[in-house]
Each structure stands twice: as structure tokens, then as C-alpha cells.
Amino acid sequence: MPPGGGGPMKDCEYSQISTHSSSPMESPHKKKKIAARRKWEVFPGRNKFFCNGRIMMARQTGVFYLTLILILVTSGLFFAFDCRYLAEKITPAIPVVGGILFFFVMGTLLRTSFSDPGVLPRATPDEAADLERQIDIANGTSSGGYRPPPRTKEVVINGQTVKLKYCFTCKIFRPPRASHCSLCDNCVEQFDHHCPWVGNCVGKRNYRFFYMFILSLSFLTVFIFAFVITHVIHRSQQKGFLDALKDSPASVLEAVICFFSVWSIIGLSGFHTYLISSNQTTNEDIKGSWSNKRGKENYNPYSYGNIFTNCCVALCGPISPSLIDRRGYVQPDTPQPAAPSNGITMYGATQSQSDMPLAFSASKELRPPECATRS
């Protein structure tokens, strides 16, 4: 080989070795590709994400689109066929008030549907294995094939004993008021219910928006129904009832939709008003968690004892940050933490059963932070 030609050949051979060999020289390139994946792309729950993880919904969204269609069609017909006549004959404030109600309804609906309801992060494999080992030791069992019965912990909140259940899917002890949604396959903090009409779970982080949605929808439905009837009566006084219906056939469709939906919407609003005033969730009310039938001393430890305070906490209190970093990057070589490292403590995923103080981040929502555990 001539001296002048050895350099390029060696460079070429070195580049081939560095790009085709299985040595660690190629790992930074692959790691860079893997690290570019967002956490929402590998999220274990049954959810759909849009806008690069900014929007989070359940997978079953068909009923949600039906909700959108009903609201948009009914409101659109009202603004197109009724508001112009009502503004001219009665007052121009009618379309203004209707527009404000419509945009408020749509805003709260989308805020409820597109947000994280309070999903609790699952334990990492290392944390789950450590917790399983600690539970086996606490139950006096070895790591054999015997599986202990469903695991629970007891905590005392404001003098009331509350049981924490172990989630075999998420591998964590669920905090108080949390439950696992079978449709979304997630543990949700302060779980209320899964609502197909909004296409999402309703929990700690979006309950106030859900309540404001159904309450404002009640006002909008009553508003449209009342002024559609006013429109028809006003026209019938001039031309007769049948001629009035012929002049505005859309009013008939609006009246029918509003009439059959207003009762369920108002009833739902009243039910959730009762829940907010007593600081309960739908899940707790259905199960009768704080019913007096369970015991003489059974009471709701989360209630502040005052309807006004309960409503203020539910509707005006601070919104807790999301515990799942949907838009964060996946780190392939580092186990993913069960909660973001911003001072929020994971609920009992790596703490033993005997000395687990359960440093609740949820205790901020309780009146006195008196929380003790019983092994």
C-alpha cells in the first residue's frame, strides 16, 4: 500500500466499523432516537392523546361527539332561526346572553374532556417488586407461589378509619377516595365517575369543570327552550299557530330536543350540587361509604361541616398539578418515577406496611392534616 493511500482507506474502514458493529459506539445514536419519544406514546392506560400529549381523553369518544353535535345543532338552529326575530321584536339582549352561555358551555365541556382527571402514576417494576417483597414479609409469606388475599391498609383521617386498597394493575396502594377506572385502566385520584358524555373520567382535576358544564348546560337548555316557545307564541298571535310553525320549522326541532333533555340535565345538576355541598363523590354516594347504616359513628371525614366551605373548596380551591408527565421524554436507561419530582409524594409504592406514614399530598385538601396509619 502506498503511504499516501493508507489514510483514506483506514478512515473508511473505521467508519464502517463504527456504524455497523454492535459496540457501544452506536448506542448514543439509538438512545437519542429512543429518548425522543414522549411519555404519552408509551402510556400504559387506555387513553387517546392529541396535540403531542396536550389533550388526554378516553378511547371511547363516540358519545362525546354526540354531545358536541346536540349542543352545536340546537344552539346553531336557535341563533340562526330564532335570535334574529327575538332581537327585533323583544330585545337584542337575548342573543348576547345566549352567546355567553353557549361559549361557557363549550369551554367547560372541552376543559373537562381534554384534561387529565387526576390519573395516578403506576409503580415502576423495581418499585412494584420492592412493595411486593415488603408485603410478603409483613404477611409472613415467602416469595413462593402463595398469593396473599387482597391487601388493604387503614389510615385515620379526621378521626374516621379509611381503608386503602392495593391496585394489582397499578401496583400501588390507592390514596383515599381514589379508584381504578375499568374503562380507562387508570387509578384516578378522588374518582367521581367515568362519563361517556364528556369522553373522560371525572376526578380531582376536572370535577369543577364538569360541574360548571352541566350547570351552565342546564341554564342554556332552559334558556333556549323558553325563548323558542316565546318565539312560536309571538308568531302565532300574528299568523296563527300552524302558520307560525311553518315559518320556523327549526323551532319545533329545538323544542323537542330541549324538552326531552332538560329534565335529565337539571336532575344531574341538582344531584352534583348536593354532592358538592356535602363534599362527596358519586362513587362514595353510590357505595354508601358514609351512610349511617354502616355504623352509628360513620361520618364523612372530608366534609368541612359547612355547605359554603365545601362548595368553595370544590369550586374555588387550587387545582393540583398533574402527576403524569405526559409530554416528558422517556429515559430508556433510568426507571421512570411514579410521580414527578416536584415535591409530590407517591402513595405508598415503596413504603413498608408497618412504618408507612403515607405522606399524603392529598392531605392538603383535608381540614386538619391528622393522618395516622394502622398496620
UniProtKB/TrEMBL annotation:
Residues 163-287 form the Palmitoyltransferase DHHC domain. Belongs to the DHHC palmitoyltransferase family. One of its GO terms (cellular component) is membrane. This is Palmitoyltransferase. GO terms for molecular function: protein-cysteine S-palmitoyltransferase activity. Its main location: membrane. The lineage of its organism: Eukaryota, Metazoa, Chordata, Craniata, Vertebrata. It comes from the Eukaryota.
